[in-house]
Amino acid sequence: MTLKQRRIEPEALDHVPPETARPNLADLVRINRSFGGHSALLRTLKRAVGQQRSFSILDVGAASGDSASVIRARYPLARAVSLDLNWTNLERASQPKLIADAFALPFAPSSFDYVLCSSFLHHFEDEQVRELLREFYRVAKFAVIVCDLERHILPYLFLPATRHFFGWNNITVADGVKSVRASFRVPELLAAAESAHPVRTQAHVYRPAFRIGMIVWKK
């Protein structure tokens, strides 16, 4: 198996009924909480917000809304809004939340201090990634924050190898392998950001979580 290039394949979660999707969504929250997703998100967010304690942030592709929850726990004065196209994904997310298309966000320019997407961009082809980043950039006042998977052999093998030990759902394993196969290396994310808007960007790899945190600054 070569991981030199991204390969996007349809994932089951996008097409299964709600009762089948819910166990997978619960697994994704567990992975974020226990295996570095939330930690990478908070570390990247801290780089972006600095000493700010009160700010607004839109989480696009929010799924279960766990990102907004950990942001509110760390920054009680922050206003975090969860947005997703799928109501099943959002049904357990805390308010405020809304259903909307990430490619056409229903907000005026600079409506939120920050726009976040976590484990979202890897679902899309390169040109769509650039289109999404342009739309996020439009709605953000200060910066776009991206947290996504790093394409690496270890996370590619992790879910199948630990399936029985952690009791992962079958969709979690199948989609997880596809997600890693579709994910990024740092130069690829930086190139996407710079082609969408040639502005200042910075990215860090967080291991052993194998997550990439990128900030696309507007100023």
Overview of this structure, please?
The protein has a single domain, classed as Vaccinia Virus protein VP39 (Rossmann fold, 3-Layer(aba) Sandwich), CATH 3.40.50. The chain is built from eight helices and seven strands, in the order ααβαβαββαβαααββ. The chain has a seven-stranded mixed sheet, with helices on both faces. Strand 2, helix 4 (87-90) and strand 3 form a beta-alpha-beta unit. It is globular and about 45 Å long. The model has no long low-confidence stretch (mean pLDDT 95). With 219 residues, the protein is α/β, with parallel strands linked by helices. The longest helix has 17 residues, at 18-34. The N and C termini lie far apart (41 Å).
Please give a handful of descriptors for the protein shown.
219 residues, alpha/beta
Give the H and E element order.
Answer: HHEHEHEEHEHHHEE
CATH topology: Rossmann fold
Tell me the count of domains: 1
Shape by Cα distribution: globular
Distance between the termini: 41 Å
What would you call the structural class?
A: alpha/beta
Q: Profile the largest sheet.
A: 7 strands, mixed
Mean pLDDT, all residues: 95
Per CATH, the class reads Alpha Beta
Looking at the overall shape, the CATH architecture is 3-Layer(aba) Sandwich
CATH superfamily: Vaccinia Virus protein VP39
User: Could you give the order of strands across the largest sheet?
Assistant: 3-2-1-4-5-7-6
Query: How much strand?
Result: 15-25%
| Helical run tally | 8
